[in-house]
Amino acid sequence: MKKKCLFFYEEDQGNYVKDLLEVARQMYGENFESYALVINPLDVNVISGFDYLLAVKDQRLKDYDLINITSLMAECQQVYQFDAVIVLATQLGRMLSPRLAMRLHVGLVADITAIKSHPDGTIEMIRPAFEGKLLAGIINDGDGPTMMSVRPGVFLDQQSTAKIPEVLACQLQTIEDTGMRRISQIRKPDSRDIRESRVLVAGGGGVLKDFDQLDQLAQALGGMTAASRRIVDSNKADRTIQVGQSGKTVHPELYIALGIYGALQHVAGLNKVKHLIAVNTNIKAPICSLADIVVEGDAAEFVRKLTTRINENKQAE
Amino acid sequence: MKIICLVKFTPDVDQFQYDYEKNILIRENVKLVINPDDACALGFALGLKKKTPEVVIEAVTMGPLNVTAMMADILRRKVDLATILSDRQYVGSDTYATSRIIGKYLETADYDVILTGSHSRDGDTAQIPGQLAEYLKLNQISQIRKIDQPSMLNKRALVEVDSEKYLETYEIPLPAILSVGRESNYRLPFVRYDDLDLDVSDRLRIIDNDSLAVDSKKIGLKGSPTKVIKSYPIDYQKKEQVIVKNDDQGIDMVMAFLEKEGYL
Ligand SMILES: Cc1cc2nc3c(=O)[nH]c(=O)nc-3n(C[C@H](O)[C@H](O)[C@H](O)COP(=O)(O)OP(=O)(O)OC[C@H]3O[C@@H](n4cnc5c(N)ncnc54)[C@H](O)[C@@H]3O)c2cc1C
Ligand SMILES: Nc1ncnc2c1ncn2[C@@H]1O[C@H](COP(=O)(O)O)[C@@H](O)[C@H]1O
Prior knowledge:
The structure holds 2 protein chains of 2 kinds. Chain A is α/β, with parallel strands linked by helices. Chain A has 8 helices and 15 strands. In chain A, a hairpin with a 5-residue loop joins strand 5 and strand 6. In chain A, helix 3 crosses helix 4 and helix 5 runs parallel beside helix 8. Chain B has a single domain, classed as Rossmann fold (3-Layer(aba) Sandwich), CATH 3.40.50.
């Protein structure tokens, strides 16, 4: 019998949700059926790639109403008996998944970076642990579906089929009044996303004092700056440009790692980077083993020198 | 008004040092510190109490007893009551078991609101607040960057949330679980000089499982549905690399590479 996988679909994250199909493929090969659950969709016709669509239309159900959404998903679980529930780790997904896991009395593994399926059917979820020195393989022991959350961009949908899902009726039996209200919602000014940049100039602990200077190099290369958590934790940069397990997963063509050690949690955010240049005073730092070129020395000094050279070059042309 | 603040103590990751020769983490003397998000939540509660003295604050943590000194330090910052949930049987609990233990305590506790951090620095699962909210059947919201003080006292909290794309304001009836993010910039006040050695032992309680009585099959390693079955070393795919110095020659090499690969 085919395995059943449930995906929570957020319309403004559609492509990232579709990427999660790859997680199911790595668990079950082609032997699974995918169900996407969407609440009050603006347009179901753009949702593709899944076998079934549980489209819930009920204006009483708000997108932030986690109590009732959890009830709805628990009812769906009753009906369909999913083998796996896979949630994208967005702001909403991160609040929803623990609630649902508790409701279903199952374990939940956050931010998996890889997955393995054993011959006996055990699903092993893998994530960085132990201060970034090791990866931990985790199983869900007990009844109920295997549940996990996955950060956007960690898995990439390799097949991206345009399959039109069959729409299934789905309705929450009773809606509870939670008393919660959204009073306002303001879209933040669209800033560029480091996930979309071809070149990233990233800084870590080794450029703590000089992080501001990275911008010049990024500009000279037409790229963006990114940061390790060390920089973000020191309030030198906004969380939106953090690369890594608790930041973003990026796949630029060129990643320049300046004074970054290369802890697993940081490297977990690098997916299919084509070229990497590492600048570090210590060439034994793990990031260096990922690099095409390792520059041994002070990263801030390197930034100044390289920026000057690039700009001189441009002027000469 | 009674506020419960959940606090977790985590290793100060910034203090970790690597032994680059042996490639190991030096863990000795690494201090435990209050998780940054939790410090913000506690900072907000103390700010409210400063303006409205009838606010009572209880800090609750689950963890080993070596956090006692840090809980005492929190009491010296004008928190009223500190509770440590600690039992050998709790060791190895995953987030599901942890939420059930903390939830069992909170079920019997008296509160108008529960404040937590959005996520912790070590586990960083951000799962505990949501799991607890489900256990206690409360509304919960994460990544709060501002809580309106008067609204708290009116039992309908107005909170500002920063999800990556939007800035949002919600009204949430209390009791609820409000999870504060570090971007809120609420600060934990310092201990007043006079209070540095204040005896706070009468306001600090340690509760073990004899009194909390969570089903022993539901706690610790064996009560945790998620189990680590294996660990893997990091498999860095080594590239054929060129090592250069940070001198003119090195910069020449880098320039040539950038040129060749079309980045200039
Ligand atoms: C649950 C969890 C999630 C995490 N998520 C993330 C995440 O998303 N992203 C992330 O980045 N981290 C994350 N971390 C933290 C991670 O484990 C590391 O602590 C962090 O990445 C270290 O940052 P760093 O390499 O910039 O700094 P450091 O570890 O301080 O390393 C600094 C590096 O710079 C070099 N250096 C020093 N001086 C110079 C100089 N003058 N010039 C050149 N090089 C120099 C040093 O040799 C060293 O290699 C997470 C940790 C945990 C526990
Ligand atoms: N052992 C614990 N004791 C008390 N509070 C905790 C504990 N673990 C997590 N929390 C709370 O839950 C929040 C999120 O933690 P986590 O789910 O571990 O990322 C923290 O900021 C704390 O407020």
